[in-house]
Amino acid sequence: MLGRLMQSEAVWLFSRSPAAILAAIAAVTIVLGALFAPWIAPTDPYDLSSFSLIDGLLPPVWEDGGDPRFLLGTDDQGRDMFSSILYGARLSLAIAAMAMAIALVLGVGLGLAAGYYGGRFDAVVMRIADVQLALPAILTALLIDGISRGILPRDMHDDLRLGVITVAIALSLWVNFARTARASVFVERNKDYVQAAIMMGQHPLRIMARHILPNILGPLLVIATVDLASAILLEATLSFLGVGLPADSPSLGTLIRIGMQYLLSGEWWILWIPTLFLVVLVVAINLLGDFLRDLFNPSLR
Prior knowledge:
Elements: H1 2-6, H2 9-15, H3 18-35, H4 37-40, H5 81-117, H6 119-133, H7 137-151, H8 154-159, H9 161-188, H10 192-199, H11 204-212, H12 217-241, H13 252-260, H14 269-296
Helix pairs in contact: 3-5, 3-14, 5-6, 5-9, 5-12, 5-13, 6-9, 7-9, 9-12, 10-11, 12-13, 12-14, 13-14
C-alpha cells in the first residue's frame, strides 16, 4: 500500500512542486508546534507565576540586551513571546478547525439537500446564501457576535466566548460549501449510478451520503483548505478588533492587538513576530489549497 501511495499521481506532482513542499513543511511545523506547545514552550503564558514584570520588554536573543532564556523576547508583562506564539497558534488553529468543521457539515448538508430536492427548499437556501455573499465574512461574524451579546447575559457570554466566536466564524463560511455541493449534485444526480440507486428504492439520504458525496469530495477538500486559512484570519481580525478572545487568551490576533500598542515605541518584536508567524501560516495553507485545486482539476496544470 505504501508503494502504491509513493507511485501515485498526487505524490509525483507534490514532489515536483517546490512551493507545495515548502508550504507543507511550514504548515506541518507550525501545526506540530501548536499541538505540542505544552511540551515545547519554555513557559506557560496562562500561568501567572511563570513570568515576571521584571523581564518585560526584553528584545529577541539576537538583539542587544536579549536574554538567552527568551528566544523571541518578551512582551510588556514579561511573557516569553515564543511560548505565547505557540499557545496562540494552538488556540487559533483549534478555533479555525472547529469553525471549518461546522461550516463544512452545515454547508455540505444544505447544498446536498438543495441540489437533490430542488424546488422551494433550493430557492430558500440559495437566496439566504446570496444575501450572505453580499456581506463580507467579517461583518457577518461581527453581526452574529453582536446578536449573541444582546441575547446572552454578560457573564454567560464571557464564559461562552470561545463557542460564540467559533459559531460566528462557521456561519460566515458555510456558503462556499453549500454552493459547491449544490452545483456538484446537479452534475452527479443525472448519472447512471445515481439513477440506478433511485430505481432500487434507496433512501435519498443514503443516495446523497453513499453515492453522491464521495464523488464531490475533491472540490470540497479544496474549499476546506482555503476556508481554514480564512477562519484563522477571521479569528485574528475579531481578536484584533477586541470582540474575539480576551487579552488573557493569547491567540495570534490578541498578540497582534497587544503589539500594536508598541508599534512606535521601539519594541518591534511584540507586533512583527506574531504578525510574521500568522502570515507564514496563512500563506502556507493557501499554497496547499492551490496545490489541491491543481491536483483535482487537471485542466489547470
